[in-house]
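Cross-check.
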Amino acid sequence: MTTEKIADRQIEFDEDGFLANREDWTEELAQELAYMEDVGQLTDKHWKVIRFMQAEYDEKGDAPSIRKLNKESGVSTKELYQLFPKGPAKKAAKIAGLPKPKGCI
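Predicted model, tokenized:
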């Protein structure tokens, strides 16, 4: 575990760089994480993916894979890679305050 100061708060991360405590997640923190992940300013489309991921996690206990995101979020694979370059499911989960999705390297 590591701790970083983000948005004037001490935030703990697990060994993979994901939030250790989901309760620490806020929209402000999500935006800071997006900058840290080179995603930039979050748009409505980003938030659509983030909220979909959070709802799936709350319902099923695991963050959705890229395949599920593509099929069920209403955002195409091409758009997902534009929104969250170099690993959409992993980056979106990180920004959403979720653990690393199963199957992500």
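The two ends are 18 Å apart (CA to CA). Strands lie at 2-6, 9-13. Passed to J.P. for a second look.
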